[in-house]
Design a protein that fits this description.
The chain is of the alpha+beta class. Helices cover 62% and strands 10% of the residues.
Length: 610
């Protein structure tokens, strides 16, 4: 019961893991580049010195004093320093070293780029650490801290990708050239392509747009629809000292929340304060409990929680999208883990703040109603939601198509039996179900409220009649629920039917018909209009041969001399499908993958049940 979150919250363990990986990865390439550039320069210096000294020893006609002076000179001579300098007195030496100075220059720049990259890595850690520390310390600091960190880190990460990409390209040539005295053109080209891909990914991540609109399933409960409900809501808002929501959406999701982020309802984008309430849960709460829940949600408005979330949400969504793009490119992985470390640290700070705000909202709800009312409401929401999950999971796991779904009736009808069973204590009802782990456990919330609600009284609380409820003050509630449940159960039934079709090994005409409903017989014709490939639920046929899907162990595309081919490997060997003559070759490849996936899943289920 709170503002809907946007992203999952990390744990302390995952945060430590996210700190170790950047330390290992972000400095790997630049540190190696710095060492390699210095090592090669020192090796070249030594070789040149040894060559010069050997030449001195071979030189005849030199006086001992002159020979010793030359030995001292060349022993202290460092060609790498001479090439990097601009002293006019050393101009003649630089001219003599003209053939090797360009190589020294390249390795000097490899070292410099490595040091710059290491410096940027340290700067990233500094900025991220300061921002996370500020966010931990104060909620007021979270927005400016994230804004500064996001603005800085995306530029630094882009620079890191460019520098490390360039280093990888340079090293792909020099490492093999130095150690093995050869270079692999294909390797250099491949690394260069990856580097350009990485730069493109970063640019796309920085400039790509992100949609933060939340889609909500429900129906508006207007003041004209429920005047008494709205009168109570306005009175509560005034009592708490906040403006009422612009709109109220009634639904059947097991949740209550408020938000100031834009929401989409039935295809329409809605701005401003929104309160979502579960009509299914509301009918389980008595008037005091419902008032406590509404007070809790309105307290998020009064405390500025939703305003805070509205400001942060666009940047967090942008950052999350940026992380996803970085993760998809191999050369961006070091930068990805560095950015991920800040993300998890900041999310941990948000979670801690959110937990405190939840306890504050509970306290305000208790002050406006009664502490035991909010505690009972939390228990009812947790138990009802847990049992609904149990019912839906049991229904969806059925190996036969359901003749009827009736989730709402099943939950209402079986709730009393659930409450009287040991399953009440085994299910995770000690937490309010929520997609973000920022809510304190219910036991902690009960303690903060000063309420004792031992397990022995749970059945009494959960099965107490709700003669007076806010649900009864919403005349349109029954009609809204009926429409929403009908739509939800139809989607559920369709999904369960598809799941059965995927997992079924059909043995009767009726079962085959069910599978063919989703995996029909398909014929792909060649450019001449002749049947070339036939795809059915259990096999693929082509040019006089067939292979059963469950017997195919591997399927791959091969761009051979004769054109693109689909190579299928099974127990009986390999078969090939020439795709060059098929106009719908992409559709064939995609659909074959889908049919193969179904066959493998059906085989897994069959083996598990045997």
């Amino acid at each position: 019961m709170s503002s809907p979150p946007d992203q999952p919250t990390p744990t302390q363990t995952s945060l430590l893991s996210a700190l170790i990986k950047p330390a290992l990865l972000i400095f790997a390439v630049p540190a190696f580049a710095w060492w390699f550039g210095g090592h090669v320069a020192a090796d070249y210096d030594q070789r040149l010195q040894e060559g010069a000294l050997a030449g001195i020893e071979r030189e005849v006609g030199l006086a001992d004093a002159e020979r010793e002076a030359l030995r001292v000179f060349y022993t202290t001579l460092r060609p790498s320093v001479i090439c990097a300098g601009d002293d006019p007195a050393e101009a003649a030496l630089r001219e003599n070293l003209a053939s090797v100075c360009p190589e020294y220059t390249q390795h000097r720049w490899i070292q410099r780029a490595g040091l710059i990259s290491i410096g940027l890595g340290l700067l990233t850690a500094l900025i991220g650490g300061v921002a996370v520390a500020a966010a931990m310390r104060s909620r007021a600091a979270q927005l400016p801290a994230f804004r500064v960190a996001w603005g800085s880190l995306r530029l630094i990460s882009a620079a890191q990708v460019v520098i490390q990409g360039a280093l990888c390209v340079a090293l792909s040539f020099w490492v093999t050239a130095y150690f093995f005295e050869l270079y692999v053109v294909k390797l250099i080209i491949m690394v260069a392509i990856f580097a350009l891909w990485a730069v493109g990914a970063v640019l796309m991540g920085i400039f790509a747009k992100v949609d933060i609109t939340q889609t909500v399933e429900g129906a508006l409960v207007t003041e004209a629809d429920a005047p008494e409900f709205w009168a109570r809501l306005r009175a509560l808002s005034a009592k708490i000292g906040t403006e009422p929501p612009v709109r109220v959406i009634g639904g059947i999701d097991d949740n209550f929340f408020v938000t100031e982020n834009p929401v989409v309802l039935n295809g329409e984008r809605l701005e401003g304060r929104t309160l979502f309430m579960s009509l299914s849960l509301l009918r389980r709460l008595d008037a005091a409990e419902a008032e406590a829940v509404m007070s809790h949600e309105l307290a998020h408005f009064s405390g500025g929680d939703t305003t805070h979330s509205r400001s942060l949400t666009p940047m967090r969504a942008k950052y999350a999208q940026y992380l996803n793009i970085l993760e998809g490119n191999p050369l961006c992985i070091p930068v990805f883990f560095t950015m991920l470390a800040f993300w998890r640290g900041f999310e941990l700070a948000l979670a801690q703040t959110s937990r405190a705000r939840e306890l504050r909202a509970d306290r305000i709800a208790a002050e406006n109603t009664r502490p035991d009312a909010i505690a009972r409401a939390l228990l009812k929401v947790a138990a009802w939601s847990s049992y609904r999950v149990e019912v839906e999971e049991a229904l969806f796991s059925q190996s036969q198509v359901l003749s009827s779904v009736n989730i709402a009736d099943r939950v209402r009808g079986g709730f009393a039996e659930f409450v009287g069973s040991e399953r009440l204590l085994s299910l995770p009802i000690r937490r309010t179900p929520h997609p973000m782990d920022s809510h304190p456990p219910n036991a902690e919330r009960f303690a903060a409220l000063g309420v004792e609600l031992p397990e022995s009284v749970w059945p009494e609380v959960l099965l107490a009649p709700t003669d007076d409820s806010w649900h009864g003050r919403i005349p349109v509630a029954e009609a809204i629920e009926a429409v929403l449940w009908a739509a939800y159960e139809a989607r559920f039934a369709a999904g369960q039917r598809l799941k059965v079709a995927i997992e079924l090994t059909p043995r009767s005409p009726e079962e085959i018909a069910l599978v063919e409903e989703y995996f029909p017989r398909l014929v792909f014709v060649d450019k001449d209009g002749a049947d070339a490939v036939v795809l059915t639920w259990d096999r693929v046929e082509h040019d006089g041969w067939f292979m059963r899907h469950e017997d195919i162990t591997n399927a791959m595309l091969d761009d051979g001399v004769l054109g693109k081919q689909l190579v299928l490997t099974g127990a009986g060997g390999k078969q090939k499908i020439n795709l060059r003559t098929l106009p719908e070759q992409e559709q064939l490849v995609q659909l074959l993958g889908r049919y193969l996936g179904r066959a493998r899943r059906a085989k897994e289920v069959r083996e598990l049940s045997s």
